[in-house]
Design goal:
This protein has about 240 residues and is of the alpha/beta class. It has one domain: Rossmann fold (3-Layer(aba) Sandwich), CATH 3.40.50.300. Helices cover about 35% and strands about 20% of the residues. The strands form two sheets. It has a six-stranded mixed β-sheet, with helices on both faces. It has a four-stranded antiparallel β-sheet with strand order 2-1-4-5, with no helix packed on it. β9 and β10 (about 220-225) form a beta hairpin. α3 packs parallel to α6 (about 140-155).
Length: about 240
């Protein structure tokens, strides 16, 4: 991380309009909003893995002070960036606790620290404590999404890149997931959340600091969540009425 608190910085793109100059400070909580195909997933995957389609793959960037375009396992371990895809990637035939343990193994958590890590996770995600012996495949969609977030947390991730966490979920389940984001934010974790719809953010307006509206792999606007409903650009891209 830079001295000024910057943990992710994208720059050097072909034009100033294409994603570039995007700066994320440690502990920030931002949202990338745009329709399907706008480039949200490409941005997240570029930050996480240093690979993305044109034109994002022509950008330069740093994560934790290291070049994004030259990913190495050691660098990823230092920066502790964890990408959570839109699919509910749990291991359905393993229990909730076994899924969490896999996160600890991926994060290199020493065996001597795993007991205290489990306690920390179950205090953060009390729902999972009650489900700890349940097969992950039998959880509801919202519960599986929370398990995937808990598994990332168990690896001691510093930055979570979450792709469309509300996809396929009922409003109550969406609120449950965003409540988890609120707890993670209170612990200083950096969150970058990509969504197709504005409504999850409007329903949970205190979770996000800044919303970036993405179209054709370009940032077309940045807004504070409280200003979204009155934003002309949001009305243009999402059909909101003032």
């Amino acid at each position: 991380m830079n001295r000024d608190g910057v943990i992710i910085h994208l720059y050097g793109c072909p034009t100033t309009e294409i994603i570039g100059g995007l700066t994320i400070t440690e502990g920030a909580s931002i949202a990338l909003i745009g329709p399907n195909g706008a480039g949200k997933t490409s941005i997240l995957r570029y930050i996480a893995f240093g690979r993305a389609p044109y034109p994002i793959n022509t950008c330069k960037g740093t994560a934790g002070g290291f070049p994004i375009e030259k990913p190495r396992d050691s660098v990823r371990n230092i920066t502790r960036i964890y990408y959570i895809p839109s699919e509910r990637l749990v291991f359905p035939e393993l229990t909730v606790e076994e899924n969490i343990k896999l996160g600890m193994l991926a994060g290199g958590i020493p065996r001597s620290e795993r007991g205290s890590m489990f306690e920390e996770i179950y205090s953060m995600f009390p729902l999972l404590r009650a489900r700890r012996s349940q097969l992950a495949g039998t959880l509801s969609g919202g519960e599986q999404k929370i398990l995937s977030i808990a598994r990332a947390f168990s690896s001691r991730a510093r930055v979570l890149l979450i792709d469309e966490p509300s996809a396929g979920l009922a409003p109550k389940a969406i609120d449950m997931v965003y409540e988890v984001f609120k707890r993670l934010r209170s612990r200083g974790m950096t969150l970058v959340i990509a969504e197709q719809s504005l409504w999850p953010l409007i329903r949970n307006i205190d979770v996000i600091d800044t919303v970036y509206i993405i179209s054709d792999m370009k940032i077309v606007s940045s807004q504070k969540p409280k200003d979204l409903l009155e934003s002309d650009i949001a009305k243009m891209y999402f059909g909101l009425r003032g």
